[in-house]
Amino acid sequence: MSLRLLPALLFALCFGVTPAVAVDLQEGKEINGTCAACHGDNGQGGSRGEYPRLAGQQVRYLEQQLKNFRSRARINIPMFPFTQDKELSDSDIRDVAAYLAGVQLSNRMPTYTGKEDALTRLLMAERVMIIPRAEGDIDKGGAIYQKQCASCHGKTGKGRGMFPMLVGQYTNYLKRQVDLYLKGDRPHDDEGTTGVLNTLDETQIRDILAYLTAIQEPTE
Question: Are 182 and 201 in contact (CB under 8 A)?
């Protein structure tokens, strides 16, 4: 086996992907060059949440959303031309999703030694992503989240399987997606356009979003 393919195979095994559909992380990185125009070189998204963070997101979730964009099951006009069969194949989707899922962004400012040049400092800083604290009752939000959301999105908000990571995502983006769910413009899950979010009021949703900004774990 080629040494170039070994990391991809190990990644595939870790995420439950069979060797028959092993991914090419280098190809995924190259495909991400197109995505970077909006989502950033490191998959960090837009600075104000106009584009979501993709780095570290659940690989199966990324794959499914790209397929949804391609089929127009999820309507997003800017994404449509990039996800047609002639632009983004199933293989491409697997590769770029695996690459982005493996990108790690710290939420702790780097420690500089003083020997770095300006470009190196800039690149180190660009891999830091700290979501500002959102207003709301963190304790109430935490209680609601653990009761209503954790079974799918995980106790620490990092997602699992087909369910996306929420912690470390832009609050403005999350709120915009919640509004789309509540209006029925985006299905909350495979069951249809209604779900847990439809049982919560505006204050409860605000508190959950505040809680998510409070549980970002410091990383190296």
Answer: no
* Residues 113, 136: Cα–Cα separation, whole Å: 38
74 CB-side CA count, 13 A:
21
CATH of domain 138-214: 1.10.760.10
**Signed CA dihedral, 77, 101, 164, 138: sign only:** negative
Closest CA to 59 of 12, 27, 26: 12
What gap in Å lies between CA 142 and CA 144, rounded to an integer? 5
Kind and range of the H or E run holding 9 = helix 6-14
Q: Given this model, what pLDDT does residue 48 score?
A: 82
Q: How far apart are CA 138 and CA 154, in angstroms?
A: 17
Question: The whole model's pTM is what?
Answer: 0.82
Q: What is the reported pLDDT for 219? A: 45
CA distance 36 to 42: 8
Token pair listed for 165: 């990571």
CATH 1.10.760.10 residue spans of the chain: 6-101, 138-214
Each residue of 13-31: pLDDT tens digit? 555 544 457 899 999 999 9
Cα separations in angstroms, 4 against 7, 18, 19, 164: 7, 17, 14, 29
pLDDT digits (tens, 9 = 90+) for 156-180: 999 999 999 999 999 999 999 999 9
The CATH number assigned to the domain with range 6-101 reads 1.10.760.10
Q: How many CA atoms lie within 13 A of 117 on its CB side?
A: 1
